[in-house]
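Action item from last week, closing it out:
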Amino acid sequence: MNRTYTLKRRADQQAQTRQRIVEAAVELHGSVGPAFTTISMVAERAGVQRHTYYAHFPTERDLLLACSGLAADRDPLPDAELWRSVADPRQRLQAGLGALYDWYARNAGLIGCVLRDAEHHALTKEVIQLRMGPPMAVYQDVLGQGLNARQRALLGLAFDFFTWRTLTRDSKLPRDEAVATMVQAIAAARSR
């Protein structure tokens, strides 16, 4: 009986240690970015030794997958299936972009650092494509119904985090105006 209790307590402690390491890494990824986060930084922030870090995460890929999984669990990307039933394409686009832009606003620090690093850090690029590629493909499918090639190109631009950031942070447009600007631009490309 005592051995079972001891094993359970040890497993709980290991799970807590692993969680601390992942949370420390996510915090660092949102401040310095995954490409500039070192093992020493994560271990120090998590309050563990390097060998403990390696016991939980033998490779950088293991850690990045755990971090992206935690971030996705905490605040998943919007569900495109919710927009599929909106018959009017313009309203569907407004709903979809609005939900995506709200997600960007909630996750701006982390996603900004991660996407910046994905430009030059192959592993970050791989993980971001793994986590965001499939949902973005579904967004393109659901929100791109009935759009011509030019409109689909603008839709891709509208989905882009840096487009959102330029519209809201740099140009200081409120969320609804940023969405309306992109919806109008996409609609205007129909007639050309």
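Closing note: Residues 2-31 form the longest helix (30 residues).
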